Fold this protein.
Amino acid sequence: MGGTTIGGNVTLGAEFNAYVDPEALKIVLNSGINCVMVGLNVTHETVVTSEQNEVLKNNTSPQANVITTLIDYVNNHEWTRHFEGAVMHDPIGCKCINGLKCH
């Protein structure tokens, strides 16, 4: 996370995390570690609808319960009105840093 090619979610050009803590972004980008930027243009394409979340609830593990509860929370708030479901910003970023293919 930290960037976008489609316009920001705080200003026309700024993504929230980069906007609120530009010093942290600078430290990370200048640290020499391998970085993968996952922009809003990617995460906005990855949503879980209420209907999909109902299917996920068939998994009764404690982990699935936490995840589906969080998705319900996001889907039931007004700030998701521009999307068809809960946008998966953080999980997509985590997927990429855990070495999984991120396409």
Observations:
- The chain has a mean pLDDT of 82.
- Helices lie at 16-20, 22-29, 40-43, 50-56, 62-75, 89-97.
- The longest helix spans residues 62-75.
